[in-house]
Write a structure and sequence with these properties.
Mean pLDDT: 96
Radius of gyration: 18 Å
Shape: globular
CATH architecture of the largest domain: Roll
CATH class of the largest domain: Alpha Beta
Order of helices and strands: EEHHEEEHEEEEEEHEEEHEEEE
Structural class: alpha+beta
Number of strands: 18
Length: 286
């Protein structure tokens, strides 16, 4: 019997486990993620996010996330907003700026409060984008950047730009994202041999210099309604290609995110909602 909370950020939904209280053995997290993520036999989610004590005094909490297939991701941009709100609203902290230990490094979410002290949004310092090929990682000559590079898969030719936000992302700019057969092409790009750790896949449409539209095939989970690290990577790619400035409103199927790439710090800042769905008790064996 495991107590859980379901939350979503723009429809990117996860089951949250407060493992400070529940103390599920960490080696069981992948199997638990598969079990709870199943939308017919489980709770239904894009994966599992676990709240843990930090391993260093420099952090407030430790974040681990697992995709619906049980594979572990380095970070989740929508998930970290919900993570921060959970910790604040459930009394695990009184801080509104948190230092969170993740596999992508230290991530700093800042809770935005209204006049009554209620959370109305979360702004996240996502850190610096990684542009070097080996840091994405992507096979091939270790050139400085993968920008508008020819790429072929399943008999189709594309031009790709790759960015790591602590996890790998590949962006393909098209005239109409809604016309892309994402369910067919997404998994083929995700598992292409050029990406040794697989990759998140984003098709992007430019609506203006400060407005973009994207659809995502998420590594390990498939089509999702939003991807926060992906939106961050999309802005970087759009700017590198000259399609956008350093700030944009990004439309995702689940809603909108505001993303900015600060020129002085080189950090990405992402702002969006974090919403509670329900609390429950998971009773099935896993």
């Amino acid at each position: 019997m495991i107590r859980f909370t379901k939350m979503e950020g723009l429809g990117n939904d996860y089951v949250y486990l407060n493992n400070i209280a529940e103390q599920v053995p960490e080696q069981r997290f992948p199997a638990l993620s598969v079990a709870v993520s199943d939308r017919h036999f489980g709770v239904g989610s894009d994966g599992l996010i676990v709240i843990l004590p930090p391993t260093t005094a420099a952090h407030d909490f430790r974040f681990r996330m697992f995709n619906a297939d049980g594979s572990e991701g380095e970070m989740c941009g929508n998930g970290i907003r919900c993570f921060a709100r959970y910790c604040y609203d459930r009394g695990l902290t009184t801080k509104t700026v948190l230092k969170v230990e993740t596999k992508a490094g230290t991530i700093i979410p800042e809770l935005q409060l209204d006049g009554q002290g209620q959370v109305i949004g979360v702004r996240v310092d996502m850190g610096e984008p990684r542009l070097q090929r080996s840091l994405i990682p992507m096979a091939g000559p270790d050139s400085d950047r993968v920008v508008d590079e020819p790429f072929s898969v399943a008999g189709r030719d594309y031009r790709v730009t790759a960015v790591s936000m602590g996890n790998p992302h590949v962006m393909i700019f098209v005239a109409d994202v809604d016309a892309v057969d994402l369910a067919a092409i997404g998994p083929q790009i995700e598992r292409h041999p050029l990406f040794p750790q697989r990759t998140n896949v984003h098709f992007v449409q430019v609506l203006g210099p400060a407005e973009l539209k994207m659809r995502t095939w998420e590594r390990g989970s498939g089509i999702t309604l939003a991807c926060g690290t992906g939106a961050s990577a999309v802005l970087v790619a759009a700017h590198l290609l000259g399609h956008a400035g350093r700030q944009a409103l990004i439309h995702l199927p689940g809603g909108d995110l505001t993303v900015a790439w600060d020129e002085q710090s080189n950090h990405i800042y992402k702002t969006g909602p974090a919403t509670f769905v329900c609390d429950g008790v998971f009773l099935k064996n896993f």
